[in-house]
Amino acid sequence: MSHSKTTRAGHSPYKIQVLDRALAILEALSQDGPDLTLGQISESLGLHKSTAHRLIMVLERHKLLEKHAERGKYRLGLKLFELGTRAVSQLDLRERARPFLERAVLETGETVHLCVYDDGEVVYVDKVEPGRSVRLASSVGRRNPAYCTAVGKAIMAHLPESQVEIAVQKHGLRQLTRKTVGTMAELKAELVSVREIGYAIDNEENEEGVCCVGAVVRDFSTDPVAAVSVSGPTFRIDAEKIPVLAKSITAAAESLSKELGFHAIAEPKSGELKNGEPKSGGNGGKKPGKRSRALRVGSASA
């Protein structure tokens, strides 16, 4: 083994010794493994055995590494696979989704978002804006409650009911506006409706003056992995326009789902979102209009 010091990471002005050492252990198992004894790890990194053991115990508790019961050696834990898979899938998701988001913006003239679900909340991972003067003020990386957003309800409608209940128990059903859903019974009824019509609506539930229409995105496993939405001010999105926006955003969701390997292997259950035949991806190389100074209306609730 060629490593005698705990200096596997790149040069950085910021150093926290205990974190550097813990990460160096993971690097050692990655490069010198697949499994190593406590003695091999401590020797490889130039650490005292007691120091290496304490760090290993913490990493093992968090499932970042695990100990083989018979051989007594340590190897990388499945938690790393879980984290890595999520990171890669989300990066890949943004890249694959972008053509469909851009096409939806051209079709609707409104802001389009891509969101993922995280323990009862939705996280905005991408957005495409139209080139018009009045647009929504939103930002990638922002979080919102799932229960009162179109993207959140689109995803929750395809989760096990127990997961929805756990999320509500954790976050509650806080009344953000006078139209926010107030009880679990109301939320469940709305999720049934989402499955029946194939899309979710946030009509000023998360923020007054903002209306959103969202649809679920699924992958090869058929699980919901994300949602896309089109959002705009209520003075532009009325009851008559919602079905028009829904047609565009559900087409984008279905196209992206197919891109991620989702295929219906049987007739969808009653009320389930059907996987329609997607239109061709992309938008012919066109980009949404140039960004200009624009009046921002509210913030994205999607």
Task: Give a short synopsis of this structure.
This protein is α+β, with helices and mostly antiparallel strands and 302 residues long. It has helices spanning 17-32, 38-45, 49-61, 78-108, 150-156, 161-171, 184-197, 242-259; strands at 35-36, 65-67, 74-76, 111-118, 121-128, 134-137, 143-145, 200-203, 210-218, 224-233, 295-299. It folds into two domains: 17-76, Arc Repressor Mutant, subunit A (Orthogonal Bundle); 86-299, Beta-Lactamase.
Q: Care to describe what's here?
A:
- The chain has 302 residues and is an alpha+beta fold.
- It folds into two domains: 17-76, Winged helix-like DNA-binding domain superfamily/Winged helix DNA-binding domain (Arc Repressor Mutant, subunit A, Orthogonal Bundle), CATH 1.10.10; 86-299, GAF domain (Beta-Lactamase), CATH 3.30.450.
- The protein has eight helices and eleven strands.
- The protein has a six-stranded antiparallel beta sheet with strand order 7-5-4-10-9-8. Strands 1-3-2 form a three-stranded antiparallel beta sheet. Strands 6-11 form a two-stranded parallel sheet.
- Residues 1-10 and 266-297 have low confidence and may be disordered.
Determine the mean pLDDT.
82
Alpha-carbon Rg, integer: 23 Å
How many DSSP E strands?
11
List the uncertain runs: 1-10, 266-297
- Helicity range: 25-40%
The percent range for strand residues is 15-25%
- Total count of domains: 2
Count of alpha and pi helical runs? 8
Can you tell me the overall shape?
A: elongated
Name given to the CATH homologous superfamily of the largest domain: GAF domain
Largest sheet: 6 strands, antiparallel
CATH T-level topology of the largest domain: Beta-Lactamase
Within the largest sheet, what's the order of strands? 7-5-4-10-9-8
